[in-house]
Amino acid sequence: MTLKYQIINKKNLYSGFFKLKKLEFVHQKHDGSWTDKVNREIFSGAHVSTLLPYDPVRKEIVLIQQFRAGVISRYDDDYLYEIVAGIIDKNESPKATAIRECAEETGCKVNKLTVINDYFPAPGSSESYYHLFLGEVNSFDGERIMGLESENENILVKSYKVEQVRKMLKNKEIKNGLTLIALQWFFLEYYKD
Predict the structure, then answer these.
(1) Confidence band (pLDDT; 50, 70, 90) for 1?
(2) What is the DSSP letter of 28?
(3) Annotated catalytic residue: which of 92, 149, 151, 189?
(4) I need a surface site. Which of 18, 165, 176, 191 has the fewest CB within 10 A?
(5) Distance separating alpha carbons of residues 76 and 57, to the nearest angstrom
């Protein structure tokens, strides 16, 4: 396979919780010709494993809520509804990460894991790559506060009936893209009334 791009220059601009780099490149157009030089800043992103926790016996979905700095400028009604997600540790598989993160973020043990899809969540600005799973769990009554203190996590966890989550989707209460993708797959491909 012949590469359809050429990196001319790469510069690290910032290194903190995330990394930011500037790329200067050219790429092949659809007609076979090449572009002029293009400059883009790209977040290093993360290799992430995600999981939609679902209890098939109680017909409940476990959702979490936690503070997210990325929504400060646009959204302050409440915390976003999300599914489980975490960065894959070195030498850890996406499946192992999904199972570990589910226990850390919800307190639920995964009984069965199903692959949904892998995808780039924002390829125009980030190198992030996500692995998405469905995890069958035993849901619970009430609420829990979970997360790792060492990571300053304070995660509210609650089980919702499937029909309640469907209404949340219809009422546009779910704003997190990862969660939208997982739930749309769940209702279109997996869940049978």
Answers:
(1) low
(2) B
(3) 151
(4) 18
(5) 35
